[in-house]
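My current task is to audit a protein record that another person submitted. Alongside the sequence sits a line of tokens, each denoting a local backbone shape. Where you disagree with what is written, explain briefly why. This is what I was given:
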Amino acid sequence: MSGDPAWVPRMAARDEWLSQVREEIIDPDREIVDPHHHLWLREGIPYQMDELWADTGSGHNIVQTMFMECRAFYDESAEEAFQPIGETRTVAGWAMEGHQLKNRAQLAGIISHADLRNPDLDAVLDAHVDAGQGLFRGIRHAGACDADPALKIRPRGEPGMYQDPDFRRGVTRLGERGLTYDTWQYHHQLGDFLALAQAVPGTTLVLDHLSTPLGVGRFEGQRDSHFAQWQDNMAALAECSNVVVKLGGMAMPDNGFGWHERDLPPTSDEFVEAMTPWYDHMIRCFGVNRCMFESNFPVDRISISYPVLWNGLKKLAAGYSEADQTALFSGTARAVYSL
């Protein structure tokens, strides 16, 4: 996802504010696979391997991560369809360098971007495979679509994209090639996404960020009412066995919790209080083998620190069995992305 230029620096440069809340690390030996983070250089502010390792090395046992496309490092010398290959190539190169280092989280997979409506999609996918050095796992062609001016994170999707026959053909092709399809979208798009999931049963669809329940603009003050509809929509979506979900990304400004505007960032207890109804519903509907915890850093870094976030997730999961916790923190991500 891309951010409003005025917000991007704050996402990655929040150290002093975040440091006001420090907590002892809970269950520090538990292995974690973080299946969703970005790397970029925006508005002169980097969030690249050193910044990622500073977060992943801040106390929790992060053993592997997954890079998620964010329109960074594109090859502007290439024709448009092949420009995203530059992102895959750059990140794969950094990952290979990181694999030579000890005591670092290993970047173990890459989700790249391609226009799935492209009639030459296979050529683009082949190029991602070549550039990915064994790390390329799938495509995100995000569907988030809403024109509300209150949104801080720019949506990228186009109206009717999920219904487009060419788009559905592209998603189908990913499954035929053993690749996944990730998407980021809003809560009010769940009906369209359900229709897509039903139309492409042979492709694994990964829904990011709980479908981003919005709490700003025209959705401000309506969390209770749209939570009920969201619950029903998620229960229906869970009937599609080809859909798996990432639990995270709920600390973005557009979720409407307002943490980023406070004098103090949230504690893990505050995070758990706000998130438990949403996360528990997802786990009840999809089961732990189709759910994975994610950080969505550095985007969620505007609201919460990495150690506090994972403390919150561990507190939220504490009531589940050991096997269920293993699935949520690492097992599902490894299975879905073949890590």
